[in-house]
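Reopening this one. Same input as before:
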Amino acid sequence: MSVTESPLRATVVSDDEARFLSAMLAGTSRTFALTIPRLPPVLRWVVADAYLLCRIADTIEDEPELDPQDKNRFHLRFRAVVSGDQDPKRFVSELLPRLSQRTTPAERELLAELPRVVAFTHKLDMSVRRCLNRTLEIMCEGMPRFQRHVSLEGLEDVGELDRYCYYVAGVVGEMLTELFCLYDIRVAERRAKLSSLAVSFGLGLQMTNILKDFWEDRKHGVCWFPRDVFARRGCSLTTLEPRAGFEAGVRDLVALAHRHLHRALTFTLTIPREQRGIREFCLWAIGYAVFTLRKLAANPGYRCGEDVKISRRSVRTISRVLALTAGQDGTLRTLFALATRSLPLANDESVAFEASPYPTQSPPE
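Same output, byte for byte:
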């Protein structure tokens, strides 16, 4: 496959489709609305479409008014809609009235516009659609294993945290790797190394989000922290006492996320320098996560997500610096080392997440 023969690059995206995908993205994700536009033309719209599909799957799973059987049924039907085996309008007409006020207006709008999202998906090359279908299959099968048993007691251990993060984010790292490889043969030539780091790329970002969103999740009776980490510090996740133990446990999770982000940087630097847009997409997400971890490490006794949220000014500064240095590997390593020097760092043995339980896709012929 040459660059010009890439099935992904052959996709024709109209101005109307681009405006629609941009609007849906802006309404549902602050971070991805910033990072996805850094990707090269066509690839950015395929990744935007993939994100929106994943967001719909997540919306179904998070809806408190749906019981586990209903969630499973709607997930199966959603996958059938994306595969082209069911009517998206009928699906929307049955699901939309079932949603509670917990589902945001932006998520409701996205669901209402599912037929347009799927119409774009169906115009993509079959190799791209197989990649998206695999991701949704794993997410829709994996998320319920954890959502149905989650409580304020948290997950059992770090291994459970790794598995949960794989189903909601690690698989997205695998999906992005496949899409990048389909886009450029020079990236595909590095598939083996990228694939070995792809899950960590997703896990580092997801663990950072779990830390940032801890208090908001707790309001809804949910905790994604692992009990074993806090038990070693003498802290109960149910009571969050003693406070010193909770803060020590937070720093332990910061150390785990930091180690994954180290691997995420290696993932990014494995991408050829010529693909600056792909690099920027990855680097901006890593940069935002690193500076969030810095705030968490400096304030492990935080009481809400706003306490550790990076400012818009910081986001702009991080973005500008990384845009200027996206092709400079040595400079990027130095910047990462300087930015993370105050962070605790887990050893390699602590970052021993399970490999994907699902077979990865074979390279296209």
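So the earlier flakiness isn't reproducible anymore. For the record, The chain has two domains: 1-125, 150-355.
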